[in-house]
Amino acid sequence: MGLGSRRRRGVTAAIAVAASITLAACGAGKKDDDSSASGSGGTSAGGKAITIGLTDPVTALDPAGSYDNGSLTVEANIYQFLLDVPEGGKTPQPDAAQKCSFSTPTEYTCTLKSGLKFANGDPMTAKDVVFSFTRILKINDPNGPASLLGNMAKVAAKGDTTVVFTLKNPNDQTFPFVLGTSAGPIVDSKVFPADKLLADDKVVGSGPYAITSYQKNELVNLTANKNYGGDNKPKTSKITMKYYSDPNNMKQDVQEGSIDIAWRSLTPTDVEALKKDDAVKVLTGAGGELRYIVFNLKTMPGKTDAQKLAVRRAMAYSIDRQDLAENVFQGTFQPAYSMVPQGIKGATEPFKQAYGEKPDTTKAAAALKAAGVSTPVTLDIDYTTDHYGSTSADEYNQIKRQLEATKLFKVSINGTAYTTYRDERVKDSYGIYQLGWFPDFVDADNYLSNFLSETNFVHAHYCDEGKTGRPCDTDKVLPLLTTEATSTGAKKDAALAQIQQKVATGTMPYLPLLSGKQVAVVHGNISGVQDTLDPTYKFRMWLFSKS
């Protein structure tokens, strides 16, 4: 799944606080010039055809069966969402919806724009919206986004244009964001089966583009959707997506001009080399990707909870993030001192404050000695060889060198293919291991509730799946998650700061390492790519043009 994948969103309990969010009737992206439009509800985009190289594979193009970056890259361009975050934006804006707002603390109501159609000509109605969300929960595919809808009790249509979501927990300020995630694409109820997935080459959406030919994870051809009635009019009528298993081949093709755009996942060394090639331009943008270490609180080294915590803190004192960022990732990543990366509203840097910006062997040794931990501590650290980029081996070899340089640790690192790695980590086979994260939406909550809620996906046994007496109770994180998810302004920021501080200085089940920038490489006169490089990780192809 390329350099990372989207994961399960934990459901945060909420308190009943009266609030309302109203989103004005405006587009989800910048409206193109008149040459891209053909009057009402259509597009006659021209421009030269563009070929895009990618490495993130597609799991499924049926939204009920996919929750990963590779699938969402295509889905974001062929489907509409009720709400979506526009390029460079930080809050959801109407897409297929004309407006959305909280009508009561537990009811979120959306009104559709008029005249919307799917690519096959079928009209889009509230019935299709209800169908789209209910089938995700009904199918509940293991690779699907059902967990994102954990706070949705039900959804119902009122007439052809009004949709009402009833929420389990009131005043969920993150729900508008959820409508623009992998759970949000609107599908045609006349085409998609209600109880099973539809084949990729049969899917129909209402987005800016429609699929004209499809070879899964090889070649996908898109054409501007003539029935598209939204505001994101394509500037280019034909897009070809070419998939690569080896990013080095993609690098060569963009240098030679065989493809116009290369997006994810070039190695840091390749990116550095491409910056010196006058035939191409390397573009960078803000990203929300996070690389971090997970500690399994049951199986990691240490005879007692206190000893395990001392090992975690000693590691935090010993790892040099700046060294990793510069010497392994060539500046394509930056140090992360919180589970919420810098650039996301509400982010703080508690790990820098607690453990320092540079390694401190003296403090690491003191933490171990105080807990009665004998040194050197034997550590087995696991990582996946093929899921977070080929640089993972270099990253964990460097971490091994850093830890062993303190003379406090003896480290073995173990690389495993992701298909095995994914299964083994949930069996408690690993004590200390690598994970990565791409946000579902650009809000700090998405970096916290997923990892700290009682039913978090990480299998670190933090909270121990809701059993009392475990670290979540000790840290008192759950009440803070409730406050954060239902608040705005200074109250929300204060709760976020407290949560991040507790992760760093409390139980510390995670050790954040690095946050990533987005990188795309273009050959020739390509416009619009820079505009889409933001923390949403949505590749908005309707912005692209070639001259």
Structure description:
Residues 1-24 form the signal peptide. GO terms for molecular function: peptide transmembrane transporter activity. Pfam families: SBP_bac_5 (PF00496). It contains 15 helices and 20 strands. It is an alpha+beta fold. It has 2 domains: 22-275 and 524-546, Periplasmic binding protein-like II (D-Maltodextrin-Binding Protein, domain 2, 3-Layer(aba) Sandwich), CATH 3.40.190.10; 287-517, Dipeptide-binding Protein, domain 3, CATH 3.10.105. Strands 2, 9, 10, 11, 12, 13, 14, 15, 16, 17 and 18 form an 11-stranded mixed β-sheet that branches. Strands 1-5-6-8-7 form a 5-stranded antiparallel β-sheet, covered by helices on one side. The longest helix is centred in the last third of the chain and has 17 residues, at 489-505. The radius of gyration is 23 Å and the shape is globular. Residues 1-44 have low confidence and may be disordered.
